[in-house]
Design a protein that fits this description.
Blueprint (H helix, E strand, L loop, with lengths): L4 H44 L2 H11 L3 H4 L2 H11 L40 E5 L4 E3 L8 E8 L2 E9 L7 H51 L14 H49 L7 H28 L8 E3 L1 H19 L1 E6 L9 E3 L1 H18 L4 E9 L3 E8 L21 H7 L5 H11 L3 E6 L5 E8 L4
Helix pairs in contact: 1-5, 5-6, 6-7, 7-11, 8-9, 9-11
C-alpha cells in the first residue's frame, strides 16, 4: 500500500504533537508526585516536634496512661508542639485568625489534608503499633515516627495520611491544572492540524506540479515549464527541472536535425551510385575505368561519412578510447604538417608553423593519436576551403597553466552569424561547395569532442589574415 506524502507530513506533525502532549502529561504526574512528597515531608517534620514532649511524658510514669487517661493533657501537649501560628506567617488585616470562627460563625476548619493538626488527625500507638489515641481506618495509609526512650521504642506517632489531591486547595489546584491542560491540548491539536494542512498544501503544491509536468516529459512534450514560486529548495528544484526540460528540448531538436541531415548526406552518394550503376546496367554508360573510378570515389566518400558518424557516436557516449600519456602537442603537430606540406605546395597554399620559445617541450596529459586526428581534420579543412593562392599560419604559445595553438588562414572567411554553429554536426557554411570537395560537416564536431575529452577548449573567430582562426587551448602537464 502506497502512503501519500501529505499523510506522512500530517502524521509527522501529530507524532511530534503526541510527544509534546506526553511530555506535558509526564510533567503533570511528576508535579503531583513531588507535591505529595512535599506534604509528607512537612507533616513528618511537624510530628518530630511532638516527639520530645511525648518522650518526657513517658519518662515520668513509664507508661502512656497519663496521656491516654487525660484528654485535656493530650490536647495541651499537641497545642504546645503543633502550634500552627509558629509555622505560618501572620494573616493579613481582616483575615480570619486561627481558632476563630469565620464570617458565617462556623468553627475553623482543619489544616490542609496531609498536615497534622487537630487531635483527631494525630495517632498515638504503643510499641506494638496498637492504637492508643485516634481511630485510623484499615485502608488509611499511615506514616509513623518512632518514640524512643533510653534507646528503646516505646511508641509510635502518626497521622491520618489522606491523599493531598483528593480534597482541599491541592485538589482545586490539580483540577485547575487539569482543565488548563485539556484546553491547551485541544488548542494545540487544532492549531497543529491547521498548520499541517497549510504546510502540506504549500509543500506539496509545487511537487504535484512537478509530477504533472514530469509525466508530460515522459510523453516527449519537452516544451513544458513550471514557474518557480519560492526561493527555497523546492524553487531550486523547479529551476533545475526547467533547465533539464530546456536541455531535453534542445537535444530533441538536435536529434531530429541529426536524423534529417544524416538521411540527406547518405541519400546523395547513394543516389549517385544508384544512377551510375543503373546507367551501366541499361547500357547507357560503359564500365570504363573512368566510370569505375567515379563509382569508387563515391564509395570512399560514403565510407568516410560512415566512419565519421561512428567516431562521433563513440565520442558522444564516452566510448572513444583515450590512451592517457605525457604528450608534447606541438611535436605531434610538426609530424602531421610534414605529411601535408607537399599537398599544400601543390594546392598553392603557403604553410607556416611558428612556435613560441620552448613550445616543443610543453607537454599535456593526453593521447597523441587523437590530437593528430584533430590536426589532420583542421589541415584537411584548410586544403578544401582556403582559396589559392593562400596561406595557413600555425602559431603556438604556452604559459604555466595552458598551451594554445592558433590555425589562421587567409580566407575566404566565415560569416559572423555562422561562427557559433561551426562546430555543430553536419553544419556547412556552403553545403553545395562542401559536397564538391567531399566535406561531410563532421570534422569540426569530432575535433570538439576530442578536445573536450582532454579538458581543453576549441573555438572559432575571425582571423587577422582575412580568413578564419581556429584556436585550441589545452591544460599543461603539472610542473
Amino acid at each position: 500500500m502506497t502512503i501519500r506524502l501529505s499523510y506522512k507530513l500530517v502524521g509527522a506533525f501529530f507524532l511530534i504533537l503526541a510527544i509534546a502532549v506526553g511530555a506535558m502529561g509526564l510533567s503533570r504526574y511528576l508535579f503531583s508526585l513531588n507535591f505529595k512528597t512535599y506534604f509528607n515531608q512537612v507533616a513528618e517534620e511537624r510530628l518530630q516536634g511532638l516527639v520530645p514532649v511525648l518522650q518526657e511524658a513517658y519518662r515520668t510514669t513509664h507508661s502512656w496512661a497519663s496521656v491516654t487517661n487525660d484528654p485535656q493533657r493530650w490536647q495541651r501537649l499537641l497545642s504546645e508542639a503543633l502550634d500552627i501560628r509558629k509555622h505560618t506567617p501572620p494573616p493579613p488585616a481582616g483575615a480570619i485568625s486561627p481558632g476563630s470562627p469565620d464570617t458565617y460563625g462556623r468553627p475553623p476548619g482543619p489544616p490542609p489534608d496531609g498536615m497534622p493538626g487537630p487531635p483527631a488527625m494525630i495517632l498515638l500507638m504503643d510499641a506494638q503499633e496498637r492504637s492508643l489515641l485516634g481511630h485510623p481506618s484499615p485502608d488509611d495509609p499511615r506514616r509513623l515516627v518512632a518514640i524512643e526512650v533510653d534507646g528503646q521504642v516505646v511508641g509510635w506517632l502518626g497521622w491520618h495520611h489522606h491523599e493531598p489531591f483528593k480534597s482541599g486547595p491541592p485538589a482545586a489546584l490539580l483540577a485547575r491544572q487539569t482543565r488548563q491542560f485539556y484546553l491547551l491540548g485541544t488548542g494545540v491539536i487544532g492549531l497543529t492540524a491547521l498548520i499541517a494542512f497549510l504546510f502540506s498544501r504549500h509543500l506539496l503544491g509545487p511537487i504535484q506540479r512537478l509530477a504533472r509536468v514530469t509525466r508530460e516529459l515522459t510523453q516527449r512534450n519537452f516544451t513544458v515549464r513550471i514557474a518557480a514560486t519560492t526561493s527555497d529548495e523546492i524553487g531550486e528544484l523547479t529551476n533545475h527541472f526547467n533547465a533539464m526540460a530546456h536541455t531535453l528540448e534542445s537535444y530533441e531538436q538536435m536529434r531530429r536535425q541529426w536524423i534529417t541531415d544524416i538521411a540527406h548526406e547518405l541519400r546523395t552518394p547513394l543516389s549517385v551510385l544508384r544512377g551510375e550503376i543503373e546507367a551501366i546496367q541499361d547500357g547507357i554508360r560503359e564500365p570504363t575505368p573512368q566510370n569505375l573510378t567515379s563509382l569508387h570515389a563515391e564509395i570512399l566518400r560514403l565510407g568516410k561519412l560512415v566512419d565519421d558518424l561512428h567516431l562521433l557516436a563513440r565520442s558522444d557516449s564516452d566510448q572513444l578510447q583515450i590512451e592517457w600519456l605525457r604528450v608534447a602537442p606541438f611535436s605531434v603537430l610538426k609530424n602531421v604538417t610534414e605529411t601535408y606540406r607537399d599537398r599544400f605546395v601543390r594546392k598553392g597554399i603557403q604553410l607556416e608553423v611558428v612556435p613560441a620559445p620552448g613550445m616543443d617541450k610543453a607537454s599535456i596529459r593526453g593521447d597523441g593519436d587523437r590530437l593528430a586526428q584533430v590536426f589532420t581534420n583542421l589541415l584537411d579543412n584548410a586544403l578544401k576551403y582556403v582559396a589559392t593562392p593562400g596561406k595557413l599560419a600555425i602559431t603556438g604559445a604556452a604559459d604555466q597553466q595552458t598551451l594554445t595553438l592558433l590555425f589562421q588562414d587567409s580566407g575566404p572567411g566565415v560569416p559572423a552569424e555562422a561562427l557559433p554553429r561551426l562546430f555543430d554536426r553536419l553544419f556547412r557554411v556552403d553545403p553545395s561547395r562542401s559536397r564538391e570537395t567531399g566535406g561531410s560537416g563532421l570534422g569540426l564536431s569530432i575535433c570538439r569532442n576530442i578536445i573536450d575529452r582532454h579538458q581543453g577548449r576549441i573555438w572559432a573567430e575571425p582571423g587577422i589574415l582575412g580568413g578564419l582562426t581556429i584556436g585550441i587551448s589545452l591544460p599543461r602537464w603539472p610542473q
